[in-house]
């Protein structure tokens, strides 16, 4: 099994289609307040590197959510499309947007110390606190 695969998907209304040339084999959950507010719960996303192409880019809105990252959304249906690190233009794409995601494992939960008590996952995953995320990735997280 290769480490990455090509992933394809779309927003809810189908106005925006995308291809991620290097869709990772695992996904993670972010429990930070911004991701929870943006996605309505933990953001479950797949790291896709920087080789991501979008069709119908005129329907993509971008919100600068911090000094180091921005979030994309469909202007027609409101689907959350991506979390993009500005410095290296790498994408984290919500797993639910992919047409297929076979052989994907749940690998990590970040900002675990920010997770509300009202939900939890049964899967055993790696976890990182807010401090660990910023220590490991620096301000480019």
Structural key phrases:
141 residues; mainly beta; Metal Binding Protein, Guanine Nucleotide Exchange Factor, Chain A; eight-stranded mixed beta sheet; three-stranded antiparallel beta sheet; 2 helices; 11 strands; 43% strand; globular
Write up this protein.
By secondary structure, this protein is mainly β. The chain has a single domain (4-140), classed as Metal Binding Protein, Guanine Nucleotide Exchange Factor, Chain A, CATH 2.170.150.70. 11% of the residues lie in helices and 43% in strands. It is built from two helices and eleven strands; from the N terminus they run βββαββββββββα. It has helices at 33-39, 130-137; strands spanning 4-10, 17-24, 26-30, 43-49, 52-54, 60-64, 69-74, 80-85, 90-94, 105-110, 126-128. Strands 6-7-8-9-4-3-10-11 form an eight-stranded mixed beta sheet. Strand 1 (4-10) and strand 2 form a beta hairpin. It is globular and about 40 Å long. The two termini are 28 Å apart.
Beta-strand percent range: 35-45%
* Overall pLDDT: 93
- How many structural domains does the protein architecture include? 1
Named CATH topology: Metal Binding Protein, Guanine Nucleotide Exchange Factor, Chain A
Number of DSSP helical runs: 2
The SSE string, one letter per element, is EEEHEEEEEEEEH
């Amino acid at each position: 099994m290769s480490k990455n695969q090509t992933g394809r998907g779309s927003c809810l209304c189908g106005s925006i289609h995308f291809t991620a040339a290097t869709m990772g084999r695992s996904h993670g959950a972010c429990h930070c307040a911004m991701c929870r507010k943006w996605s309505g719960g933990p953001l479950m996303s797949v790291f896709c590197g920087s080789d991501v192409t979008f069709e119908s880019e005129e329907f993509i809105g971008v919100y600068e959510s911090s000094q180091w990252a921005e979030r994309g959304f469909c202007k027609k249906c409101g689907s959350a499309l991506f979390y993009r690190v500005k410095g290296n233009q790498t994408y984290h794409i919500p797993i639910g947007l992919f047409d297929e995601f076979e052989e994907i494992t749940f690998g990590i939960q970040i900002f675990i110390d920010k997770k509300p008590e009202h939900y939890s996952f049964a899967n055993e995953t790696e976890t990182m606190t807010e401090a660990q995320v910023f220590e490991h990735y620096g301000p480019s997280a």
